[in-house]
């Protein structure tokens, strides 16, 4: 068979068939019909020249030249498909681009003629003709734009006339530099023609208007709402955007509604705020109307929070940012009216951005349009008054409360109720019940935002303040209903920010009297207990000022407060050498017993403010320490004897513990933070105080703070637990209280200081509690095993990883391993572990990767490249586990692409060829998933995958055969790879398997044969290898799916030649196809009818 017969244009068919299609499309090119027809003639002459060379058998054309020829044919087809049948205004706008693209294709044709060594008389002639064509084209355009009848033939309604006017004005007013004088004249002529012959008024050009041809977008939406579809797109050459097409026919929008939409777009286009999605352009005249926005690459907030557990840790920050966006549009007198989490987007830099606000006119049009039904589901976020009245800023506050519920529980409000029940709840003024996952403080905020009386709802400014507290981890008091007077007072107090206070204290403290110094330093400690406030302190030369106060202050508490700030500088922030701090601490005198008694009494019996002041003093006193006061206390005495043996001062030190523990349990956030600070410092003293802290059950509230506390509370709790773990037997109690899981969370996302403290604490907890291999092998809790992988000895890491291999086989434990942070440590073992550790880690990841969310995290942690490295270089067990993990990961298309980028294809092909049976099975399964990507198909062929795939089809296990069939099915979509499969006997192997395979396997084989039958070469091969009889057998007695695939393949086979058609008729296809065309599914009916039509087109006359 000749070379010309084998020329296939990828994705389109043979060159001859494509040239025929090109000729048909030329007839739809209006002014450009003649130049395009001449280009077709040039391409056809090239094909004829190739055929002549082939007949004369002079020489074979270079393969790369043939590739260039097929590429030019493909480019020509794409050009015509893009520009055919366009309206006059489009052809006018794209005149220059159309000319330039056609010139380039002609020059590429010249290059092909030269590369093929063909004699062509028109190689130079087309250029002169092209210049004539340009002039002719301009003359035709000039005639058309001045012809009222021709212009109005395409603009038969006011909307299309106005859209055309706006498009023309867009080019003339906004982009005059892109048009030459002649084109500008044509644009103005057409504008005048429309104005002259139309009854519509000339619209003003909005600053945001974009003609549809300025945007290219994927017609398949990635999201769909109640009134719009959302698409990925590109503006200009490469700017990624999001295009929202409204579910309303532009022709159905009346003039008043269109004006309302225009007003909303005008307002949105002016908005400029980091938490509001930027409007880049829109068209309210198009069919359908659309808007173009900046691309928020992380999707909507609900999806973002559900994607990874780590994302949930940003919940309050993102809700706070969304509320900032809402406050901004409210200040612009815009009501959102449709708040829910899928209208809050997350940008590339992790910022929440409000979207879809103020689009009431578009929303109403979509609801009234026949193109989309109204969805009552939006009621779940609506305020009760919106059943009767339009949304307001107060109803937005209510809806934002529903967003908080949605964010916390991961489901819409009233998730278990149908729409009618939700409507009834709203009519009765009922809100959803408090979710179990929601804390009391958050619920108080929600309740304050959802008062059935809109005038009594908390204001948005108060909501913002509370959300910021949540985001910062410092919520100090629950929100109250709106009180204008108190809000004014609070705003006035907020004017003096903490930064100014810190600088003011440090600048002036040396000149204050003793009482003022004490009060100012107390305030400084209160502020600087928050880690983020202390950098301001250091910038203001605090170390020297505080050191002077410790050395020369005359008031004990002034010294203690200064010492506390210096402790943070030395222990937490590394701003002061530890030895220097120890020296300063030793210079502070002991605290008198009566002062200790006063502090203990205030902790127990004081008001909230007195307890807070006392907690500060306790923390500072504990920093100074007992000075050895408790060193001689004998712990082994009975409790009563122990108490009787203590001095009064010793009893007071011990007596501080229980009130501090009570504050950690029942106090407000400030109490808890300061009490945990004090307990942590006391726990550094000696075993006597540590024993008392444990006896007072401080471990329970400390672990609670690890779970749900603010950043500062978590850091203090982990520091205190680290010190308590020094006590014999205490580490086991801390583990039993569930501390390990929240500690693992801190290791992943905590501050640098938290990570260090937490890692040390984890070591203190797990190392002594799991000294032997059997202790680890008996553990069924996930968190301790993950901790052992992070901080254990080599043997502990290996054993823990081995236990996780088995636990990761179960769905519920897979999610738990990911939730507590087990993925990163396992991936870490792949990189730095011993041989045994790497093997266990790969096995665990193989089991874990069957969960898609976990697979994404494995990829995010860098696991793909490490698994590929192990598949190349590991021992036999490691290779098996690594390729098994890759098989599961490859179910995710984006991870599949990553496997290819990381050079994984070569390793998989090698294992498929030379690996063990299990390795071959995993490798071919991975390749089956990878072949959904066309780029990877070509790479697979290049790496030599076709031969081993065919070999597995012939002699592999049943599972290997099934995967290999799937891989060949996908590979055969690529024209070049399909040819290679055909040349190496792939069809023969598939047909042999078809004759003896299972029903499920035969279904897949029939689908694969359908792909091969798309080309003449494949059809001939199927017939030559005896494939018609088994296909007819499937048509006669196969499953419904098998019949469908067999019909498609037979339809394509019937396109071949009379000999094949005759064989199809002899095998009895005609009555079977007729029966299917009458009683099959819609798809089967259509395919059977086409097959019969193809058979009728041959030499056989069917009755």
TrEMBL record:
The keyword Coiled coil applies. One of its GO terms (biological process) is cell surface receptor signaling pathway. Transmembrane segments: none annotated. ARM repeats lie at residues 821-863, 903-945, 944-986, 985-1027. Keywords: Coiled coil. Residues 138-165 form a coiled coil. Residues 216-471 form the Protein kinase domain. InterPro entries: Adaptor_Cbl_N_dom_sf (IPR036537), ARM-like (IPR011989), ARM-type_fold (IPR016024), ARM_PUB (IPR058678), Armadillo (IPR000225), Kinase-like_dom_sf (IPR011009), MLKL-like_MCAfunc (IPR059179), MLKL_N (IPR054000). GO terms for molecular function: ATP binding; protein kinase activity. PROSITE patterns: ARM_REPEAT, PROTEIN_KINASE_DOM, PROTEIN_KINASE_ST. This is Protein kinase domain-containing protein.
